[in-house]
Amino acid sequence: MKELIYEHETIDEIQMKFMDKDIAFWKEEIATIRIELLFFKRILTSPIFKGFNCDRKQKVALLKDLDNVKEINENYHNSLSSVINKLEMIKECEDVQCETFYLNNHTKYRVDIENHFSAYRYYKINVILFFDNCLEEKM
Fold it and tell me: Which pLDDT does position 1 carry in this prediction?
C-alpha cells in the first residue's frame, strides 16, 4: 500500500498534498455534475415521458432549478482556476501569517464548494424521485 504521508515530509508539504487532493476531487466533482446536469436536461425535456403521468409543475420547477444549479456549478468551475493559481502563491510564503492567509482561503473555499456539492445532491435526489414517481404511475 502506498503511504499517504512519509516521515521525511514537512508540515508544509503535507498541507500542500492535502490541498492538491482537495482540488483534484473538486475538479472531478464539477466535471461529473456537468455531465449529470446535461443528462437530466435531456431526459427532462425528452418526449419519452410524454405518455407518463408526470407532475408538469414539478418538471418545470426542476428544469428551472437545473439552470440555476448549472450556473452555480459553472461559477465554481471558473473560480477553481483562480483558487489553484492563488494556492500556488503559498509556496512563496516566508512566514506563518502568509501561509495562514492562504490556508484560511482554501478552507473557506472548501466549505463553500462542499455546500454546493451538498445542494446538488439534494437536487439530484429530487430529479431521481420525480422520475421514480413518473415510472411508478406506469407500473
Answer: 46
